Amino acid sequence: MTLSTLALVPVLALVCTPAFAAEPVSAGERLAATCTACHGTRGNTAGTALPPLAGQSKETLLANLKAFKEGSRPATIMTQLAKGYTDEQLAQIAAWFAAQRGEKGEKP
Ligand code: HEC
After folding, report:
1. What is the atom index within ligand 1 of the atom nearest the CA of 97?
2. Which residue has the higher pLDDT, 58 or 17?
3. Helix and strand totals (H; E) in the chain
4. Cβ(93) to ligand 1 under 6 A?
5. CB of 77 closer than 6 angstroms to any ligand 1 atom
6. Which of 4, 6, 57, 67 is most enclosed, with most CB atoms within 10 A?
7. Relative to the CA of 90, which ligand 1 atom is closest?
8. CA 5, CA 98: separation in Å to the nearest integer?
9. Does Signal count among this protein's keywords (predicted)?
10. Is a pLDDT exceeding 50 seen at residue 50?
11. DSSP assigned state of 101
12. What gap in Å lies between CA 18 and CA 14, rounded to an integer?
């Protein structure tokens, strides 16, 4: 190996370093991924039958999720779904949706 080849090693290491690890995924975001199938990407369901989760306050989201879990708010599907999460996980999910942009693209 010549000196000039050796000089390329750090350059190649830089070029080959994957860039996908830039933003760590939070627990709330990971858990909320299962909700997006019905509630839209990042909780935006503008123009559909479901109210957008994005932009609602964390307190409102959490209160509704707990009401679903306890069965005090009647629902078709959310009662079963909410039972699958601990209160801490529901709080993480609520915080994540609350931090997403609302229906009109503005922060709550
Ligand atoms: C299979 C489709 C489906 C999935 C998956 C789903 N939801 Fe729902 N969600 C609904 C439906 C339908 C409603 C309306 C209430 C009902 O009938 O259950 C609803 C209502 C809600 C509401 C009340 C919204 C409001 O403003 O009144 C919240 C909050 C909510 N879902 C959160 C979640 C979260 C968090 C997840 C992921 C853990 C999730 N949902 C996953 C279908 C779904």
Report:
1. 35
2. 58
3. 6, 0
4. yes
5. yes
6. 67
7. 35
8. 52
9. yes
10. yes
11. -
12. 9
Asked: is 24-98 a CATH 1.10.760.10 domain? The reply is yes
Angle subtended at Cα 75 by Cα 92 and Cα 68, rounded to the nearest 5 degrees: 35
Among the atoms of ligand 1, which is closest to the Cα of residue 34?
37
CA of 78 to the centre of ligand 1 (A): 5
Q: Look up the pTM and report it.
A: 0.81
Q: Which two tokens stand for residue 32?
A: 């909320």
**Atom 31 (ligand 1) nearest CA:** 78
- Please give the torsion angle defined by the CA atoms of residues 23, 28, 30 and 36, in that order, rounded to the nearest 10 degrees: -110
Whether 95 lines ligand 1, by a CB cut-off of 6 Å, is no
Tokens 């299962």 identify what position?
34
The model's pLDDT over 63-94, given as tens digits with 9 standing for 90+, comes to: 999 999 999 999 999 999 999 999 999 999 99
